[in-house]
Amino acid sequence: MTGLPVRSGLLLVPVAVLMMGGLPDAPWQAPALTAGTQVLNAVGALFLVMALSRGKASVVAPVTNALAPVLTIVLSLVIYRTLPTIWGTIGIVLALGGSTLMVYADETREEQPETRDPSTPMAGS
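User: That's the sequence. What structure does it adopt?
Assistant: Structure tokens below.
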């Protein structure tokens, strides 16, 4: 059953080509960039699944959502060699600070032993 979506998607390729009126007249870079983007997307999805399998979803999901724009800005710094605006810098600092505080708070919560209300009976008694 896992291969059904892939096979049905491949069967629809000729329909998409017919709807476009034939194959497009695009340079070779367009399919290469599309393939590269899809490989990076697959790697990102793999890392997200691995992170969710190893960590708590209440921590992993917000951290990945907060840090995705930070990664985009850092990549644009490297590729385009431009500095972010003041709002971009503030956003990066807030995202990194919030993620750090959330992970730290979750770790300290796990380290503290649970306290029991003395008025409640123990389980099994």
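Residues 29-54 form the longest helix (26 residues).
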